[in-house]
């Protein structure tokens, strides 16, 4: 049981709740709900709003995953992960000697996959939306034209990224940089004139406002100027795909999460199944035994991820074997509380220091429809490449492929054949948008950014609520730790794991590595009387708004 002097609850709503990484996006989502839109209208509005007010991860030049649950219990998922362009090939980031060319898959024009966000939002709206599309996208157009008031965190992030923006663009990417060197500061207003016009084209022409016509021309022109390979055909051929989410049980709860090409859902379900036989509540929150058990589950799942997971449209992912209870029981057979496990059989991955700027939002409407979306450009501001004249950033998602077997990506994750590059293939992800049911009723909506730490952050947040009795707000605030098989280290946030717990784990053979904040979880918990508690992560500018 988690013990805290005073219970901290997030905002409570009776009729709906929107939790996002930015106050402007949460306001826009809430307004859509209040004027009669459903959770899907609000989700579409929030995706476009984040593209304006949260350029580090919000996007129209990237992709993501949506897991949904209608009020009647129907579930589904939309895969809008970026795709490798037709001209991409397996060894495109290697030199003649077969060595990885530093940063080629990470920054600049060649790092970008074909964006999926706009096609996805149009599909969501067309299938499930209630309000006219124009009403749903207009608040973001107005925000872009009026300008976004910078928060302190966003101003600092932009200042830190100034050199990278100049390095990776052929034109200065205004307004994310300034011509003079005056730094951005809290309260400054950034006006996105070109982006407003791009959003207007999407409003007026739908798909053709992005994947054809002027916007497509600008993307292809940008590619040519900077040596990228996304073509008009790539844009025309892009299509988001409706998929069946993965689902499993944990102590009577039903966990619904994202299927490949995200590893998130499978890894989450594996980890939950591996710890299920234990009474974590009794073992206590972040005690040595609880941490050890969770770390060993994480180690085994992330090893499977590296070997077996990739885009299931291209590679036969052994989904049923990976989620088989007998297999997972077997997987934990060599686990012992007496000593640390070991990942040394494979070359150790390196841990990158890049910001893990994906973003997640959770929405529940009055009827009980629930949307869990994680969306990204990959690392902060993606490839740093802004499409000149169109005002938006392109992703650097190509780095989520395994550019060479065993060579770690930006997050230190290694991969193999399952996640090699091929034209039209989607790169493996860790994104874990998740919805939980109890007795056939909605219980929780949750997800987070954080690169490779996404799935372990969702794992911990779920256990914080289900096992350690935390409120949604406490569960997202709680300090976190992370293990990903390689490197064989337990990464810990500042306040995670007491000194005593760290000492005991070190003695057992665990390498404890302090690091910067892990994840920014956005969750909604359905309380016993049906009210909704929003939990917005205090690590950022995140905001939960209910009514
Ligand atoms: N780009 C981070 C992820 O998809 O896992």
Distance between the ends: 31 Å
Number of strands: 19
Architecture per CATH nomenclature, i.e. the level-2 architecture of the domain at 260-350 and 449-519: Orthogonal Bundle
**Estimated structural class:** alpha+beta
Radius of gyration: 22 Å
Ligand identities: glycine
CATH H-level name of the domain at 260-350 and 449-519... which superfamily?
Answer: Gamma-glutamyltranspeptidase, large (L) subunit, C-terminal domain
| CATH topology (fold) name of the domain at 260-350 and 449-519 | Serum Albumin, Chain A, Domain 1
Question: What is the spatial order of strands in the main beta sheet?
Answer: 1-18-17-13-12-9-8
Content of β-strand: 15-25%
Helix content: 25-40%
Give average pLDDT, whole number. 95
Q: What is the helix tally?
A: 16
Model regions low in confidence, pLDDT < 50 over at least 5 residues:
345-353
User: Quick one: biggest sheet?
Assistant: 7 strands, antiparallel
Q: What's the CATH first level of the domain at 260-350 and 449-519?
A: Mainly Alpha
Q: Any idea what the shape is?
A: globular
């Amino acid at each position: 049981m988690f013990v805290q002097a005073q219970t901290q609850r997030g905002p409570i709503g009776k009729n709906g709740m929107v939790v996002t990484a930015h106050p402007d996006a949460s306001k826009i989502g809430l307004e859509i709900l209040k004027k009669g839109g459903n959770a899907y209208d609000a989700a579409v509005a929030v995706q476009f709003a984040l593209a304006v007010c949260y350029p580090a991860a919000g996007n129209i030049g990237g992709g993501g995953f949506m897991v949904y649950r209608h009020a009647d219990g129907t579930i589904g998922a939309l895969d809008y992960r970026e795709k490798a362009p037709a001209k991409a090939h397996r060894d495109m980031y290697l030199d003649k000697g077969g060595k990885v060319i530093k940063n080629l898959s990470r920054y600049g024009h060649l790092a970008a996959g074909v964006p999926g966000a706009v096609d996805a939002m149009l599909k969501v709206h067309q299938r499930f939306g209630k309000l006219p599309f124009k009403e749903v996208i207009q608040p973001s157009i107005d925000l872009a034209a009026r300008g976004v008031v910078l928060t302190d965190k966003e101003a600092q992030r932009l200042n830190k990224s100034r050199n990278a923006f100049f390095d990776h663009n052929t034109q200065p990417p205004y307004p994310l940089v300034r011509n003079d060197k005056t730094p951005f500061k809290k309260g400054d207003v950034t006006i996105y004139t070109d982006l407003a016009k791009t959003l207007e084209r999407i409003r007026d022409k739908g798909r053709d406002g992005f994947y054809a016509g002027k916007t497509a021309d600008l993307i292809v022109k940008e590619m040519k100027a900077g040596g990228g390979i996304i073509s008009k055909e790539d844009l025309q051929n892009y299509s988001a795909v409706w998929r069946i989410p993965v689902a499993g049980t944990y102590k009577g709860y039903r966990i619904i999460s994202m299927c490949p090409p995200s590893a998130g859902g499978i890894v989450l379900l594996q980890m939950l199944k591996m710890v299920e036989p234990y009474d974590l509540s009794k073992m206590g929150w972040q005690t040595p035994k609880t941490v050890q058990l969770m770390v060993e589950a994480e180690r085994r799942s992330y090893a499977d991820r590296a070997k077996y997971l990739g885009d299931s449209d291209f590679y036969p992912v052994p989904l049923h074997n990976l989620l088989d209870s007998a297999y997972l029981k077997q997987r934990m057979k060599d686990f012992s509380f007496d000593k640390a496990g070991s990942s040394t059989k494979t070359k150790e991955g390196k841990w990158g220091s890049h910001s893990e700027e994906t973003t997640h939002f959770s929405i529940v409407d009055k009827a009980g429809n629930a949307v869990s979306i994680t969306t990204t450009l990959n690392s902060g501001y993606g490839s740093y490449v802004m499409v000149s004249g169109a005002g938006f950033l392109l992703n650097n998602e190509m780095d989520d492929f395994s550019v060479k077997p065993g060579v770690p990506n930006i997050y230190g994750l290694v991969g193999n054949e399952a996640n090699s590059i091929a034209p039209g293939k989607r790169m493996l992800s860790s994104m874990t948008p998740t919805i939980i049911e109890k007795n056939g009723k909605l219980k929780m909506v949750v997800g987070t950014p954080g690169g490779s730490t996404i799935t372990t952050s969702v794992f911990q947040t779920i256990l914080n609520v289900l096992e350690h009795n935390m409120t949604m707000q406490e569960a997202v605030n709680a300090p976190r730790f992370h293990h990903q098989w390689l490197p064989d280290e337990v990464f810990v946030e500042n306040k995670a794991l007491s000194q005593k717990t760290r000492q005991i784990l070190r003695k057992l053979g665990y390498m404890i590595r302090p690091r910067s904040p892990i994840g920014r979880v956005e969750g909604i918990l359905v309380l016993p009387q049906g009210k909704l508690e929003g939990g917005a992560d205090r690590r950022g500018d995140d905001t939960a708004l209910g009514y």
